[in-house]
Amino acid sequence: MHSHKDTLLLTPEEMGQVDRAAAASGLSSYGLMERAGQAVAACALRRFAGALRFVILCGPGNNGGDGYVAARALQAAGAEIAVHALGDPAALRGDAATAFGQFTGLVAPLADYRPRTGDVVVDALFGAGLARDLAADVVSIIESINESAIPVLAVDLPSGIDGRTGAVRGAAFQAAASVTFMCRKPGHLLLPGRMLAGALEIFDIGIPERILRAHGGEIGVNAPATWRDVLPIETGAGHKYVRGHLAVFSGPATATGAARLSAMAGLRAGAGLVTLLSPTAALPANAAQLTAVMLKPIDGEGDLAALLEDARLKTFVLGPGFGDGERARRYAGLIASGERRLVLDADGITAFRDGPQALFDLFEGPAPRLVLTPHDGEFARLFPDIAKNSPLSKIERAEKAAARSNGVVVLKGADTVIAAPDGRALVNDNAPPWLATAGSGDVLAGLVGAHLAQGMPAFEAAASAVWRHGEAGRLAGEGLTAETLIDALTGLDQLK
C-alpha cells in the first residue's frame, strides 16, 4: 500500500514546521529525538558489524542531540565509542541539551579527533538544515576523514550538504550511508548531495502522516504512485486513433536520426500512430529507415496548415535534429492554435532563445499544453536570469520556469526535475548513469509525446515518461545505445 511519505520531499524549513507541529500535537519532541538516535545506532551496528570503534561527531544543534543518543545506545550495546563535539556541549539548548545530559561518557573537542584503522564515523555535526558555508576548521576535519577512507554514517544528510539545494557548502562527507527520518529531503536527491549521501535509510520516528501532509509542499519523488491513476486505460474496444496520433518533425537530410529516434520511441511507448513530418529532400533518408512509422512530406507552413485540418492530430514533437530556428518558430505558432500539445526539445528550444516570451504567450491558458525538455545549457537560453540565480535549487529553478512559460518543464540531468505551472514538482531518481548517451534525450521527447497523445495531462505525461525512460535505461543495462533503450521500453501495464 502506498504511503504519502514514500514519495514526499520536505525542505528543511518544512521539516522544521513538521517538528513543531508534532510537538504542539502532544508528541514528546525529546521522544522523537530518542527514537532518531536509537535508529542511527541500530543502523551503525547492522551496517558496520566489524567496526573496532564508533566515533560520533556531535554538532551544536539537534543533529548533535541525535548523535549523543546514538552514542549512549552504542555504548549500551557494548561497542567501543569516542565522542567529539563541535563547540561547547554545555551551551546546548532544548532536546539536544537533554540528550547530552543523559550521555555519561567522555566528550572531546572535534579538533582532537585523529582517524585510526577500524573506525567508523557517525556524522552528527549538521543535518539537512545547513544553509551556510562551513568554517575552515570543520572543512579540515571533513577533508581529513574523507582522505582516510574511513566509513561515514551520516545522520540525516552528510555534513556540508545543503538540504534544500543538494549543494556542497565548503566541504562535505562522502558517506557510505545516511539515516534520515520520516521522508527524504531535496538534498538526498539533488546533485551533488545524492552522490555523497550513500545508501539511504528512511526511519519512521512516529510523526503522524497527517502532519507531514499538512506541512509538506508540492514537491515529491517521481514514482508510479504519483501518476498511475491517470495512465491510459487500454481496452479491447480501442483502435489506433483512440490511442492517439503523434507527429514528429524531422530535420534536413543530413540530420534525420534524432527525429526517427523520437518517432520510434513514441510508437513503442503506446501511441496508436506516429507520423514523421519530413522535408521532401529528407524523404529518401527517412523512408529507408522506417517501417511502422508513417512518413509525410512537410516543406513549409502551407503543408503544415493543411495537415492540421485533421482534428485527430493534436500532439507534436519539435526540435530533435531540426536545425532551422526560423521555421521552428513558425511551426510552433501554427501548432499552438486550437487545443494542440507540443513537446519542444533541443533545436526547438534554441529557436526561441532571442524571444522566449513569444513562445510562452503562444501556449498561455488554464491547462498546460507545452512541455519543454531542456538540459542545463538549453534551460539557460530560455531562462537566463533564473539559470544565473545561484541560491535557487534545481527544483526552484524548474518551478519558476514552469510558472513563467505556462508549460511543464523537464529540467534534465541525473537528477531530472519535472515542474508544472501550478507549483507541483517531482524529482526523478531512477535514472542509471549510463543513460547519459547520444540520442537518449530524443527518446525521452518521443516518450512524452506518446503519453500526451494518449490523453494524459501534461505534467503526469512528462513525469511518467521520465520515470519510464529511467526504467528502460536500467533494463537495457550499461553500454546501452538510444536504439537499445527503445527496445527496453516496457508496456504501460508495467507502470501500474
Describe the overall structure.
K(+) binds at residues 63, 123, 159. Its EC number is 4.2.1.136, 5.1.99.6. AMP binds at residues 412-416, 441. This protein is of the alpha/beta class and 496 residues long. It folds into two domains: 4-217, Rossmann fold (3-Layer(aba) Sandwich); 224-495, UDP-N-acetylmuramoyl-L-alanine:D-glutamate ligase, CATH 3.40.1190. Helices cover 40% and strands 15% of the residues. The chain has 21 helices and 17 strands. The chain has helices at 4-7, 12-24, 29-47, 62-76, 94-102, 136-148, 186-189, 193-196, 209-215, 257-268, 283-287, 301-307, 325-336, 347-350, 356-362, 376-382, 384-387, 394-405, 440-453, 458-476, 482-487; strands at 53-58, 81-85, 107-109, 119-124, 152-155, 177-181, 199-203, 219-221, 245-249, 273-278, 294-297, 313-318, 341-344, 370-372, 408-411, 417-419, 425-427. Strands 8-17-16-15-14-13-12-9-10-11 form a ten-stranded mixed sheet, sandwiched between helices. It has a seven-stranded parallel sheet with strand order 3-2-1-4-5-6-7, covered by helices on one side. A hairpin with a 5-residue loop joins strand 15 (408-411) and strand 16 (417-419). Helix 2 (12-24) crosses helix 9, helix 3 crosses helix 4 and helix 10 (257-268) crosses helix 19 (440-453). The chain is elongated and about 80 Å long. The mean pLDDT is 95.
Task: Identify the notable features of this structure and list them briefly.
496 residues; alpha/beta; 40% helix; 7-stranded parallel β-sheet; 21 helices; Rossmann fold; UDP-N-acetylmuramoyl-L-alanine:D-glutamate ligase
